[in-house]
Write a structure and sequence with these properties.
Blueprint (H helix, E strand, L loop, with lengths): L1 E7 L2 H10 L8 E8 L3 H7 L5 E4 L6 H4 L4 E5 L7 H6 L2 E5 L7 E2 L2 H8 L3 E7 L9 E7 L7 H25 L13 E2 L1 H8 L9 H11 L8 E3 L5 E3 L24
Parallel strand pairs: 1-2, 1-4, 2-3, 4-5, 6-9
Antiparallel strand pairs: 5-7, 7-8, 10-11
């Protein structure tokens, strides 16, 4: 029986993945689920259990790694150790269209720099969101999108791809292609720099709207300015297309992750 180690810090992906593997075709596989040890929200909700437990990959010995035929990352909030990706097959489901905007919160930066957005499933190597591409699909970003609404479509697309490709991913029945270029990488520091609005900076209305919609993510406080009394004032934006209705809430389980 093949064993698959699934590591996710996204509650929506965890729940939808569980629905996928109910299919009898996956009865021949054993799936073990883990979330990042530093994910306090998951620790409080799930505790330590057989089916879903905290893990710090850097602290695990090779004996643990050797139990598994595949390591699958679904928005995992920790970097896989270089030893693990070099000696064991690791696949990442990444919420971005490699090689564009690798790293933190790809859809945020796609709204701002207009680089393509989408989903990439790829084999992992020692670099961040890097490695041979197995499959990917782009998604469009509309003028009325916020980071949150784009992310919801990304989650849905990831589940669609996993539903179709999971058996092939487990069995290694796929061909890969190299990234066409190294693209660009955004760090957490890059994101945090965007959050602080300089009230003295000149910008067009278009640039301001793009910044605010890129920073708007459900209930999270991201963009802010500091007023004359030193108060940090958070800002988000509500966009509504004429004669439109809000999309269905998918439940992100937290901010987009690596």
């Amino acid at each position: 029986m093949k064993r698959i180690c699934v590591i996710t810090d996204n509650e929506y992906l965890y729940g939808e993945f569980q629905k996928i593997i109910v299919n009898p075709v996956y009865g021949a596989y054993q799936f073990d689920f883990y979330y990042s040890e530093k994910n306090k929200g998951f620790c409080e909700k799930y505790g330590i259990g057989k089916r879903f437990a905290p893990i710090n990959l850097k602290e695990m010995a090779d004996a643990f790694y050797c139990q598994y035929d595949l390591f699958l990352s679904l928005h995992c909030k920790q970097l896989f150790p270089e030893y693990l990706v070099n000696h064991h097959r690791c696949i990442n489901v990444h919420p971005g269209l490699n090689p564009y905007n690798r790293g933190w919160f790809p859809q945020v930066f796609s709204i701002l720099n207009k680089k393509p957005a989408g989903v990439t499933i790829h084999e992992m190597d020692a670099e961040l969101d890097h490695g041979p591409i197995i499959c990917q699909e782009s998604i469009e970003i509309y003028s009325f999108d916020t980071s949150w609404s784009v992310y919801q479509r990304i989650l849905k697309k990831e589940i669609e791809l996993l539903t179709v490709r999971l058996t092939d991913l487990i069995e290694g029945n796929y061909e890969t292609s190299d990234m066409p270029s190294e693209g660009n990488v955004n760090s957490r520091t890059d994101f945090e720099r965007l959050c602080h609005i300089d009230m003295g900076q000149e910008a067009t209305y278009g640039e301001v709207i793009d910044l605010l919609r890129a920073m708007t993510f459900d209930t999270y406080d991201n963009a802010y300015f500091v007023d004359s009394k030193g108060n940090k004032i958070y800002v988000s934006v509500n966009l509504k297309r004429e004669n439109s209705h809000r999309g269905k809430f998918l439940g992100g389980g937290g901010h987009p992750s690596l």
